[in-house]
Structure formats: C-alpha cells, structure tokens
Amino acid sequence: MHLHAHRSLAMEWLLSWWCRAGWSFLFCISLSGCAGITLNAVQDGRLVADGPIPGVEVIRQGARPQARPDMALEPGDEVRTGPQTSVVLSFLDGARVFVQPSTHVRIGSIFVYLGEVLIKVKGFFQVETKYATAGSEGTQYLVRVDPGDQVRVVVAEDRVGLLSRSQRWSKIILGPGQSARIVGADPPRVDEKGASPEEIEDIRQRIRELDAVVPEYSSIGPLLGGALAIGAGIGIGQMLKDKHKDQPDGGSYDGRQPGGGDYTPPGTRRPPAN
Fold it and tell me: Is the Cβ–Cβ distance between 35 and 91 less than 8 Å?
C-alpha cells in the first residue's frame, strides 16, 4: 500500500515538472529575446554554405567566435557585416531580419547601432535604436541608422508603431508606403509624400531574394522539431496525469461505489444479510 502511494506521488511530481518545463520552454521561444536565432550569410547572391564566413564578425561577451552557417546566436551577441555581405537572422517563429552590408546590430530585440535592416515578420516584433523603437505585427519594413543618430523607417506592408524609448513623444503609427525620419531624441517627422513606389518595391524585392536564398528549414528545422517534441510531451504528460487522477487509489479501496452504497465485483456472491 505504502509503495503504491509513493509511486503515485512520484508520478504526479514527474508529470507536473514535465508540464511546467515544457510550457516554460514554449513560452521562452515565443519571445524574441530568448527565441532560437540562427545566422546565415549571403555573398554575391549565393548562400555561404561552408564556414568560417568571411565578412561577418560575431562578438559574444567580449570574445569573437568564428561565424559559421546555421550558427546559433544568443541574446546579447553582436553582429557586424562587411561591405559585400548580408546576414539573414532566422527566428523560430518564422520572423526574419535581413542585416544589410556594413551594418552593426545586437541580438535580443534587434538593436541597430549603425546601418540598415529589413524586417519580415508574422507576429509582434520590434527593432530598437538609441532613442526610438519600431514595433510591428505581421509586416515588412526597413530601419536605417546613419551617423548622428539619424533614423529612417519605411513601411512596405501593414503597420509599424514608432515609440520614444524615453517617452518624450506619443506613439506614431505608419501605414503601408509611409516613412518617417527621427533625429536623436526628437519626435519623428513623417514624410508627407511617403516612400516612392520604386523604394517600396525595392524593399520587397530584396526581402524576396534573400528569403529565397536561405531556406527556412535549414535554419529553424531542428529547433522547431525540438519544440514540437516538447509540445507533444506536454500533451501526453497532461493526458497521463488526468488519467491517473481518474483512477481510484488501489491502496485505499473500501468496497464502495463513488456515489455511495456497496459494490460487489462481477462474479462475486454477496454474503447473506444478518
């Protein structure tokens, strides 16, 4: 009886831990700051298939590990691209950041020190600069930072919200085809004419070309497989836990039905009443 009770408690603890760990992992990968992020590089229109990658510098806690295809990045990592190299950062949720040549960014929420990034996302995502943040939901857009903290944001699809990191000005929403310039901590100046159709098409075309060169399965497939495995484990664990709760404890059976009254197993004769 005592052995069965100990086994029951151990099973409940194990299933509870498995569920908590699984949900924590899935919650973590849903946030850009701890999502699985992989790095690939494109040079002369071709995917760099073998490492180390020339023209790409990764800085991690002061060290400089060699950049390689499908390299896993960590929050806080910095990436610098040379004048002939673009980098594709692939997130587990399908978001992609296309780091253009001669650009310096930090990983987590993408922080642009200098240069240009193109964004293609399906859910909420944000790009940070020194004084402003450009957040979006399901869109394609460009963020460029030039010397002197001059920022330009161009929206190709859907909407992007501009926010002051110091809350010095109210949120501004940019729609498709709109653009804005931000200098230092000053409020954005929305371009009256917006971006030209040629510039919007150029942004879309560059995203399409880089997207086609770096297949999604090569960068996020293993991470996605791990997430699905844990998700399946959560479901199975919860199912077993529920089933375990529904079953009566073998050590505490008292011969009564759950709703009250006596219970006689099939094939067993009831003793005569006194």
Answer: yes
- List the chain residues with pLDDT less than 70: 1-35, 217-274
Q: Return the CATH class of domain 37-216.
A: mainly beta
> Which run of H or E residues covers position 229?
helix 216-246
66: tokens are 């060699």
**Measured on CA atoms in the order 256, 257, 262, 264, is the torsion positive or negative?**
negative
Measured in residues, the chain has a length of 274
- Residue 149 DSSP label: T
Give Rg (Cα) of the chain: 28
Cβ atoms of 184 and 131 within 8 Å: the answer is: yes
**For residues 131 and 165, is the Cβ–Cβ distance under 8 A?**
yes
Res 26: pLDDT? 42
- Closest among 39, 16, 190 to 105, alpha carbons compared: 39
- Dihedral over alpha carbons 60, 80, 73, 93 (to 10 degrees): 150
Kindly give, in sequence order, each residue whose CB lies less than 8 Å from that of residue 188, ignoring residues fewer than 6 positions away: 132, 153, 162, 169, 172, 180, 181, 182
C-alpha 192/C-alpha 172 separation (Å) is 14
Q: Which of 140, 184, 146 is nearest to 165 (CA)?
A: 184
Q: Which two tokens stand for residue 10?
A: 């151990």
Q: Is 104 helix (H, G, I), strand (E, B) or coil?
A: strand
Looking at the DSSP assignment, which residues form a beta bridge with residue 141?
119, 155
Q: Where are the domains of the chain?
A: 37-216
Q: Six-digit token pair at 37?
A: 């992020």
Distances (CA, A) of 193 to 41, 116, 137, 174, 258: 35, 22, 24, 13, 74
Per-residue pLDDT, 46: 95
